[in-house]
Amino acid sequence: MSQVTVDNLPHRQPFLFLTTIEELEAGRHGVGKWQIRGDEDFFVGHFPGNPVLPGVLLAESLAQLSGLVAFAGDVTGVASAARLAQVNVKFQSGVVPPAEIRLETAVAREMSGLYLFDVRAEVLGVVVAIGSLVLARVS
User: Fold this and answer.
1) Which residue, 123, 91, 101, 124, is CA-closest to 35?
2) Would you say residue 36 lies in a domain?
3) In total, how many domains does the chain have?
4) Quick one: pLDDT at residue 104?
């Protein structure tokens, strides 16, 4: 299989929340990075003069990386393969721009097309989010 990149995702700007894939073992784990600059559109309203990355977007970035891990080897492609079914992420600290967010995901269990992932996000070695999420295989 060729190397997996963010281009393998069905997402595009402005809803692509991964910058690079550092490591990926299909069906097992992945490490990626999301570089935020501070000029992204969502910072305009969250919050004016005091930008903070919305937690839901951080969770989405972890889901996007997890989708690549779960379905990278799927010949039908990630676009038709995954839907986010459940998110259980605790936010330990706010993320303010500029920042490079290190994202990690690992398959904890797979059963009947449901993938449970353990996920975490760090900035400068400090955990900013940790938890789990479930992706469902759909056709």
Assistant:
1) 101
2) yes
3) 1
4) 99
Residue 1 lies in a domain: no
Q: Are 24 and 68 in contact (CB under 8 A)?
A: yes
CATH of the domain at 27: 3.10.129.10
- Asked if residue 20 is part of any domain, the answer here is yes
Each residue of 28-83: pLDDT tens digit? Answer: 999 999 999 999 999 999 999 999 999 999 999 999 999 999 988 665 555 557 89
Which strand (E) or helix (H) includes residue 114?
Answer: strand 114-123
Catalytic residue among 11, 33, 46, 102: 46
Establish whether 11 is a catalytic residue. no
Residue 29: inside a domain: yes
List, for residues 4-36, the tens digit of each pLDDT value: 899 988 889 999 999 999 999 999 999 999 999
